[in-house]
Write a structure and sequence with these properties.
about 350 residues; alpha/beta; Rossmann fold; 8-stranded mixed sheet; two-stranded antiparallel sheet; 10 helices; 10 strands; SAM-dependent_MTases_sf; methyltransferase
Length: about 350
């Protein structure tokens, strides 16, 4: 019964005759074999390495608009969600959704090529992603920002991050001057932003001319049950939404790279908490040309405690589903013979 519920057809259309072979996955070293790295490129440019454009089509269901935040997408709800999750985050959540191999693969497009680069890690949480950044950039040049003091307390305990600047802040209203950083990195944060376009606009603003943003986040499921829990829990954007947000903010050379746990064997129908790495270059100094209205959420406004409690409990219940999915996928990987789709 469980297998019947969790098995769904992945609907991915590729152009130029590329077929997914049951995987539809990019750049992952599965069981020692390297797949063709197909960059999802927003522009018409084709690189010398024959990178091809793929066009994802999630026609099973439209994702809920970003203007309708899910149960744990509001900042206050996310704050309390991580108040408890921070206790087990590195030991329970990361092993199922955000491994060291995935982190290094996702950060590769960020081009962290100079140890003197100024890097901001927005939504840095416990510092797991920052540990990958400081492999390439001196810790003194890295700032970790998060709204959760409980998550940041975990980051402060990590020895390689002791020289990083660690501050509380809002991804949609960054406390950095315009044209400040060489690289903007954000991993596992956009899903909690009530207004993702505003957060990406802020990424553009704080970068220097020629700076690069690297945003790592979830992808929307195609299987009906996973779609239901995704829509209840938090923001799971479609791949084309990421690209649109980057382009509207003013970024050029926008590209999307697919990532995922190796034991998923490229399966994406259930969505992924960490499913893609999106990058874009800032072509001009100054603020983003995009003009936006007031914020979607005012964190200073009082909330109804009963409404908050009910939303929070329902959101936690939905989150439980996505804790169980990687366990299910890992069991299938152990049972189904290698080389066969799962």
């Amino acid at each position: 019964m469980v297998s019947a519920m969790l098995n769904g057809a992945e609907n991915l259309s590729l152009i130029r005759g590329i077929t997914p072979n049951g995987l539809g996955f990019m750049g992952s070293d599965l069981h020692g074999k390297q797949f063709l790295k197909m960059g999802l490129v927003s522009s018409t440019r084709i690189s010398k390495s024959c990178t091809r454009t793929i066009v994802p089509k999630c026609s099973f269901s439209a994702s809920r608009p970003a203007s309708q935040p899910r149960f744990i997408q509001h900042k206050k709800e996310a704050f309390w969600f991580y108040r408890f999750l921070s206790i087990v985050y590195d030991h329970v959540i990361n092993p199922g959704h955000w491994t060291e191999d995935m982190r290094d693969e996702a950060l590769e497009p960020a081009d962290l090529s100079n140890r003197n680069m100024i890097v901001v890690d927005v939504g840095g949480g416990t510092g797991f992603t920052t540990l990958g950044i400081v492999k390439h950039v001196d810790a003194k040049n890295v700032t970790i920002l998060d709204q959760s003091p409980h998550q940041l307390a975990k980051a402060k305990q990590k020895e390689p991050l002791k020289d990083c600047k660690i501050i509380e802040g809002d991804a949609e209203d960054l406390p950095f001057r315009t044209d400040y950083a060489d690289r903007y990195v954000s991993a596992g944060s956009i899903e909690y932003w009530p207004d993702p376009q505003r957060g990406i606009k802020e990424a553009y603003r704080v970068l220097k001319l020629g700076g690069k943003a690297c945003l790592i986040g979830p992808v929307y499921p195609t299987f009906w049950l996973s779609r239901f829990f995704a829509d209840v829990w938090m923001l799971f954007p479609k791949e084309e939404e990421y690209i649109e947000w980057f382009q509207k903010a003013g970024f050029k050379d926008v590209q999307l790279k697919r990532i995922g746990p190796k034991w998923y064997r490229g399966v994406r129908r259930h969505g992924l908490i960490m499913g893609c790495s999106v990058t874009g270059l800032k072509p001009a100094s100054g603020d983003s040309p995009l003009q936006l209205g007031p914020k979607e959420e005012d964190v200073t406004k009082p909330v109804n405690p009963w409404s908050f409690f009910v939303r929070f409990i329902l959101g936690v219940m939905a989150a439980t589903y996505f804790v169980l999915v990687p366990i299910y996928m890992w069991l299938k990987d152990q049972i189904v013979p290698k080389g066969q789709p799962i």
